[in-house]
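Table 4 source record.
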Amino acid sequence: MEEKITKIPTHVSIIMDGNGRWARERGKERVFGHLNGVESVRAVTEESVRLGIKYLSLYTFSEENWSRPESEVGYLMNLMIKSIAGELDNFMRNGVRFLALGNREHLPELVLSAIDGAMEATKDNKNLTLILFLSYSGRWDILQAARRMAEDFASHPGDLAGVDAEAFGRYLVTADIPDPDLIIRTSGEERISNYLLWQGAYSELVFTPVLWPDFREEDYRKALLEYSLRDRRYGKVK
């Protein structure tokens, strides 16, 4: 009998890794892995709705990914546009609110149009907030937050003494989103790769050897079960 997940996290975040390796194992180009990874996104999104998870975020495209071959980047941007359009009906049927966060300055206009349209269409959905981190990195996020805060306090720098972690967090792109309770990384790699460096300070980490295009509901539930067995103390003693 399947063990019961006793603690449902509010926010799960996933570093979707292994698309290229999955494709190479099948003698295909890397883009073939990205295409098949879309099925995994749909699977974990729908499972999150069923389980009552309120926030699901996915590390979709990092700031560093812009250095990949131009052909691969172009394919990923086109896949993004098609996938968002193709999933819109599913979002509405499942009550999914869609968000995309990151450095918008680097994203093509067609991608911005697609994500803004989906965000507007789904803004009133309540079951799950699905967040794609696009052109994002943790260091960039902290740096842009510090710059914005410096601008706000430029005329009264003495007030900076009263800024605490909560106040600084309101300058991050995730200002109105709870920090992730659980961060999952697929493909067997065990690092966070410049992702949610501030927000993930007390996140539980689960690493799985499953490559992202193979990651399905069963794998997701295993990670959630491991999370539910953790004793979260936040540096304190119970």
